[in-house]
Amino acid sequence: MSALLEVEDLKVAFTRRGEPDSVAVDGVSFDVQPGEIVGLVGESGCGKSVTSLAIMRLLPERGNRVTGSIRMDGDELTALSDGQLRERRGRDLSMIFQDPLSSLNPVITVGLQITEVLTRHRGMDKKAARAEAVELLDRVGIPDPRRRLDAYPHQLSGGMRQRALIAIALACSPRLLIADEPTTALDVTIQAQILDLLKQLVAETGTALVMITHDLGVVAGLCDRVNVLYGGRIVERAERHELFRAPRHPYTHGLLGSIPRLDGPPGEDLAAIKGSVNDNLPWTSACAFAPRCPNALEVCTSVTPAPVEDGRFLRCHNPVGAS
Amino acid sequence: MLRFIVRRLIQVVPTLLLLSVLLFAWLRSLPGGPAAALLGDKATPEKIAELNTVLGLDQPIPVQYVKFLGRAITGDFGNSLITGEPVTTEIARALPATIELSVAALLIAVVLGIPLGYLAARYRGRPLDTTTIIGTLVGVAVPVFFLGYLLKQWFAVDLGWFPPSGRQAVDIEATHVTGFAVLDGLLTREFDASWDALTHLVLPAIALATIPLAVIVRITRASVLDVMGSDFVRTANSKGLAPGTVRQRHVLRNALLPVSTTIGLQTGLLLAGAVLTEKVFVWGGLGTLLAQAIERRDYPRLQAVVLLGALVYVLVNLLVDLSYAIIDPRVRVR
C-alpha cells in the first residue's frame, strides 16, 4: 500500500535579519497510510505545530525557510503553485486548529463559514450548500443545526465551536485531516466528546488523521502509530501498543511516567522530566535531550545519536531497557 | 436598537449643557471683549462700559448664562455682534458650504485611505508600503493652511487648473435650492454650475482631506496587518478559499472595525481643519464665521457655532457606534 502522505527530511528554520536562524523542525520524516491515525507528540516548542503548518503551507509567507519533501499521493506539495495548493486545501487535506474561538471569523455566521468551502470545492449553489451544511452540523453532533447556521461563533459554546470547525474541515471529505491540539482549549469532559467524535468520523469516512498533541492520553485512545518529537526531531516512532508497553527513548519513558495512573498507590509522586527545553544541546554535535536525560552517557553530549530502524524508529545512544 | 438611539440622544443634552457652561465661562475669561473689539481704536473705559450695558455684559455671568439658556431653548441664540443678524440665520447660510467641503474631504480620505492602507499592509516592507508610510507622515505633519497655500499656488495660480478661491465663479448663474452648490446644479439641471462648483471644491477638499486621509491609511494598514495574522484568516486559507474571498470576507470586514471609529473621530475634527482651509480658500462657511467670531469676540456667534460643532461630533460618534452594531455581530446595542 502506498503512503497517502510522505514527509521526508522536513526542515523549517525561522530567519531574522542579523540573527542566526532558529531551527524549529530539523529533518523530520514520517508517513501516513490511507485511513491511518498518526500521532505527533511532544512538548511545547518541539516543532509539532510548525510541522503541521508546513504540510499545509500555512506558515507566514516571510521569515522562514522550509526544505525537504512533502508528498501527498505522490504529488510534491512544496512544488505546487499557490493556486494549485488552494485547490487541494480544504478538499484533499484540511486542518483543525487549537483555539476554536479565534479560529472562526467573529463577524460572519457559522453557516457561511461552512458553505463557503462547499461552494468553493464542491461547486454547490447556495441552497444546496446550506442543506449540506445542516447535514454536516448534524453529523458533528450540533443540536438544532438549521438554527445554528445563522449563529455567530460567539453565540456557540466552546465545544460546539470546535464541532463546527470539524464540520468545516470534513465538509469535502478530505483524505487527510490534520488536527493541531484540537482539544487543548476545551474542558476535560468536552475533550473526550470531541476525541470520540473525531475517531468516529475518520472511521466512517476513511479519512487519515494526523493528531498533534502534547497529551499522551489523547494518543493512547486514538492513534495507530505515534511519532515522538523532541527539539525538532523525531526521537522515537512505534506502533501505539508497542510504545506504551515498552517505551525505549528516555524522553518517551519520561512522558509516560508523568501521567497519573488510576491503579497506582495513592499519594505517589509523578515522575517529572527535569530541566526545560531551554537546556537543549544542538543536534549537530550531541543529543538535544542529553542534559535532561536520566540515562545520559558521556557520548550523548558529544555525538549525535544516529537513527536506528529496528522494529521501531529510535534515536538514542542509551535506550531504556538496554543492558 | 431604537431604544439605544433614543437613550444616546437623551445623553446628548447634559453633554451640551456642560459644554455650554464651560464655553460661557471660558469666553468671558478671555482678555478683551466684544465691546473693545467693536469700538476698536475709539475705545475708552467709559464707552466700553456703556456698550457692555447695552449688550447686557455688565450683568453677573450666571445671570447672563441663565438668560442665554432661556433663549437658546427656544432656538434663539441671539444676534451676531458683527452683522447684527440672528446667528441661526448666519449659520443656516454658512452650513451647506462647510458640509459640502467636509463631505468631499471625507470622501477623498475614505475612498483613498482604505485601499491605500490595505495595499500598504499587503505589500508590507516593499516600496509601496514605505512610500505610503512616509507620505502619511508628511500628510499629518504639514500644517493644513500651509498645504492649502501650496496647492493654491501650484494648481490654481501657476498651472491654472483650478480656481484659486471661492465656491462658485461670479459669472455663473446658479439657482440655489439646498445651498449645496454641486447638488443644486444637478437638481436644476444647470450642469455647468455643478461642474464649476466641483472645480472650486477640489483644492480645498484635498487640503482638508490630508490629515484624515493619513490617519485612515495608517489605522487601516495596522488593522489589516493585525487581522492577516489572526487565526481565523489562517483557517480561511486552510479551506483553500480564493484569495479574493479571504481578502474581502475575512480580512477586510474585520479590519474595518477600528477604521470606522477613526472615521468618526476624524469627522469630528474636520471642523477644526475647515476653519483653516476656509480661510485659505475664502470658502465662506462655518469656519469663516468661527474665525471672525473669535477675532471680534462675537460671543453669541461663537457660542452657537461651537455648540453646533459639539452636537455634530456627538451625533457622528453615535453613528459610529451604530455602524459597529451592523459590522460586528458581537456588539449588540441595548
From TrEMBL, chain A:
CDD domains, alphabetized = ABC_NikE_OppD_transporters
Keyword Transcription regulation recorded:
no
Task: Using the record's annotation, list all stretches that form the ABC transporter domain.
Answer: 5-256
* Name of the protein: Peptide/nickel transport system ATP-binding protein
What membrane topology is annotated for this entry? Peripheral membrane protein
Lineage of origin = Bacteria, Bacillati, Actinomycetota, Actinomycetes, Pseudonocardiales
Q: Which PANTHER family match?
A: DIPEPTIDE TRANSPORT ATP-BINDING PROTEIN DPPD (PTHR43297:SF2), OLIGOPEPTIDE TRANSPORT ATP-BINDING PROTEIN APPD (PTHR43297)
| Family in the record | Belongs to the ABC transporter superfamily.
Main localization (coarse): membrane
* Residues in the signal sequence: none
What Gene Ontology terms for biological process does this UniProt record contain?
peptide transport
**One GO cellular component term:** plasma membrane
- Alphabetic keyword roster: ATP-binding, Cell membrane, Membrane, Nucleotide-binding, Transport
TrEMBL record, chain B:
Location relative to the cell? Cell membrane
| Alphabetical list of SUPFAM superfamilies matching this protein | MetI-like
Q: Give every ABC transmembrane type-1 domain span.
A: 95-320
Spans through the membrane: 101-121, 133-151, 197-219, 255-276, 304-327
Q: What cellular-component terms does GO give this entry? A: plasma membrane
Give the way it sits in the membrane: Multi-pass membrane protein
GO biological processes: transmembrane transport
Instruction: Quote the InterPro entries the UniProt record gives.
Output: BPD_transp_1_N, MetI-like, MetI-like_sf
Key words of the record: Cell membrane, Membrane, Transmembrane, Transmembrane helix, Transport
Similarity comment text for this entry: Belongs to the binding-protein-dependent transport system permease family.
Q: What name appears for this protein in its UniProt entry?
A: Peptide/nickel transport system permease protein
Say which species the protein is native to. Pseudonocardia oroxyli
List the top taxonomic levels of the source: Bacteria, Bacillati, Actinomycetota, Actinomycetes, Pseudonocardiales
